[in-house]
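Final report, closing paragraph on structural work. Over the funding period we assembled a curated collection of sequence-structure pairs, and we close with a single example.
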Amino acid sequence: MIDVLKDMRQVALQNAMLDFAEHLDDAIIVAAVELGERQVNATVEEYDRENRQSLRMLGGFGEAEGAPVPC
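Its predicted structure, as stored:
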């Protein structure tokens, strides 16, 4: 996705569409941040899932509502 935005920015610059190129710069930054957040969230979710499974296997905390959550 970011590569497409960069390509569009390059075309905008080649055609002297400076305002559009500037907006694309902003879009590239936003996309990078959001994609980074998704990666972090996916990693945290995977860790949580593995951690819960390990605790269940060890007879630890369950999935019941109000059950203590390990830090």
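Residues 2-57 form one domain. The chain has two helices and no strands. We thank the funder for supporting this effort.
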